[in-house]
Amino acid sequence: MTTLVPTFEHLPYNLLRRIGQSLDHSEASQSTLHSLVLTCHRFYHLYLPLLWASPYLDSDRRIHRFSSLISDRPLYSALLTDVTQDTRHPRMHLHTLSFSALPTRWFTITNSTIATMLPALPGLRHVDVALCGALNDQFLAMLTVHAPKLQTLNLSYIE
Q: What is the pTM assigned to this prediction?
């Protein structure tokens, strides 16, 4: 008599989805999701939207890389189609943009930083720019144009 060894391929989709959703948005959880995405095609399609839903942006380097990935720059134009039209790209799953993990956000996050990101994030629903002191009214004007689905906005400690 042979014994079947269960594998992840046999686990129900909803169970695997709940496992991914139970992870918080810390660096460790993002790293775990990234590892899962690289495991197999099923995990790639299941966890990539979760990985992109709320990226962990804790350094200037990560913000620059993230901005380069989502914007329509010449380097990526061959890989990405029109930013606002490609519904298959993972950036379409991004709904939370938070700079709360960035220690230098007071002077790093500026209107121009945000201006490169917002046009590429049409599904944005939550923005946390608390303590991002370099932002001003121009930032709010950009939000009204580029974030029509916005539900929450944290502007704590911004004058």
A: 0.74
Q: Which domain holds residue 5?
A: 1-53
Q: What are 32-41's pLDDT values in tens digits?
A: 888 888 888 8
How many CB atoms neighbour CB 15 within 10 A? 9
Q: How far is residue 54's CA from residue 124's CA, in Å, rounded to a whole number?
A: 10
| Interval 104-151: pLDDT, tens | 888 889 999 999 889 888 889 999 999 999 999 999 999 999 999 999
Structure tokens at 8: 């992840």
Same domain (yes/no): 84, 154: yes
For residues 46 and 64, membership in a common domain is answered with: no
d(CA 159, CA 140): 13
> And the tokens for 5?
């060894």
